[in-house]
């Protein structure tokens, strides 16, 4: 028994010595690694974090150069000859380089430079392609570039899914080609505030109207999908509308060749909520707000005749369902300005 105790004591002592030696080796290796890292930094090499920052800034500068070249070389006149159009001033990464029409659904919207701050709310809900047409006076194009680059930097979906297009007037008081500006990389938390603070020229003060129809059409033409959903930049879609419609389209074979000329559109009821109220994610949350009188049908006061044919009352009575479906069918009536999902071959 005594011999066994002595043997175990020796084993324990040996293990302690081995562990101590391993710790010394470990600390030595760490010290050498740290010394090498510091030496590399002194010699001009960057840490992983710094390299990522450098890469990001380098890519942004590359994108800015490409945008300026596109503006300089690829603009076209609209049919009136009063506006220049730059299609795909910045292209969604997921879109690829070819303008092939895909069996998909794009959200189409238009915006001034300052109103681009609303894009984050759209992209938080919409997980498919987005086509944004931006209006700018010539002298404000550098600010448009700044806004696009920083939105792409801070919002992954603005980089992967969103294509930006630019429209500017020929009769702007300043018509020189935009020159490169210093790239400002503010913290992402402050980017929207910074865009909102841009000193944008007043187009109406220069006798330049906001080309609403042209912007919509530019956004539509560059939405390279079978279906489109056109909304205002300050509107927010339901959380799963994109995926629900794709499932609906596949189930009902809307993408098959024989239905390419189908003129059916799918009206999406639109509502207004009070500014102090969060926009609900789905129909269940919306119905609760309607009951509390914190939401109402879109344009209820401004132009009810433009929306009443949507038949909001029937829609509200239908309980929420897990899948998208057609509630009822109706022929178009005048006046009616609904928001709808339709084929991109419909007349502009």
UniProtKB/TrEMBL annotation:
GO molecular function, one term: glucuronosyltransferase activity
Primary residence: Golgi
Reaction catalyzed: 3-O-[beta-D-Xyl-(1->4)-Rib-ol-P-Rib-ol-P-3-beta-D-GalNAc-(1->3)-beta-D-GlcNAc-(1->4)-(O-6-P-alpha-D-Man)]-Thr-[protein] + UDP-alpha-D-glucuronate = 3-O-[beta-D-GlcA-(1->3)-beta-D-Xyl-(1->4)-Rib-ol-P-Rib-ol-P-3-beta-D-GalNAc-(1->3)-beta-D-GlcNAc-(1->4)-(O-6-P-alpha-D-Man)]-Thr-[protein] + UDP + H(+)
Record keyword Ubl conjugation present: no
Source taxon at top rank: Eukaryota
Pfam families (UniProt xref): Glyco_transf_49 (PF13896)
Family to which this protein belongs: Belongs to the glycosyltransferase 49 family.
Protein name (record): Beta-1,4-glucuronyltransferase 1
Organism: Stegodyphus mimosarum
């Amino acid at each position: 028994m005594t011999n066994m105790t002595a043997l175990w004591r020796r084993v324990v002592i040996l293990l302690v010595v081995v562990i101590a030696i391993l710790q010394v080796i470990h600390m030595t290796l760490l010290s050498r690694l740290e010394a090498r890292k510091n030496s590399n930094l002194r010699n001009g090499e960057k840490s992983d974090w710094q390299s990522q920052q450098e890469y990001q800034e380098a890519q942004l500068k590359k994108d800015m150069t490409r945008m300026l070249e596109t503006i300089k070389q690829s603009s076209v006149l609209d049919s009136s000859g009063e506006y220049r159009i730059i299609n795909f001033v910045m292209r969604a990464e997921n879109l690829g380089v070819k303008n092939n029409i895909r069996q998909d659904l794009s959200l189409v919207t238009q915006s001034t430079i300052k109103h681009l701050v609303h894009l984050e709310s759209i992209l938080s809900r919409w997980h498919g392609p987005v086509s944004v047409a931006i209006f700018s006076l010539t002298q404000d194009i550098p600010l448009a570039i700044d806004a696009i680059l920083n939105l792409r930097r801070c919002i992954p979906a603005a980089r992967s899914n969103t294509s930006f297009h630019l429209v500017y007037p020929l009769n702007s008081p300043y018509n020189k080609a935009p020159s490169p500006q210093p790239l400002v990389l503010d913290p992402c938390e402050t980017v929207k505030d910074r865009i909102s603070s841009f000193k944008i020229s007043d187009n109406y003060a220069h006798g330049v109207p906001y080309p609403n129809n042209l912007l919509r059409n530019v956004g539509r033409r560059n939405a390279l999908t079978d279906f489109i959903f056109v909304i205002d930049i300050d509107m927010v879609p339901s959380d799963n509308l994109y995926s629900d419609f794709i499932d609906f389209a596949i189930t009902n074979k809307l993408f098959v060749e024989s239905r390419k000329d189908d003129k059916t559109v799918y009206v999406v009821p639109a509502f207004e909520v009070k500014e102090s109220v969060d926009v609900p994610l789905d129909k269940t949350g919306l119905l609760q707000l309607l009951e509390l009188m914190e939401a109402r049908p879109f344009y209820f006061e401004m132009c009810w005749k433009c929306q009443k044919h949507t038949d909001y009352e029937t829609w509200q009575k239908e309980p929420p369902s897990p899948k998208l479906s057609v509630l009822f069918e109706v022929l178009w009536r005048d006046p009616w300005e609904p928001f709808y999902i339709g084929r991109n071959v419909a007349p502009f």
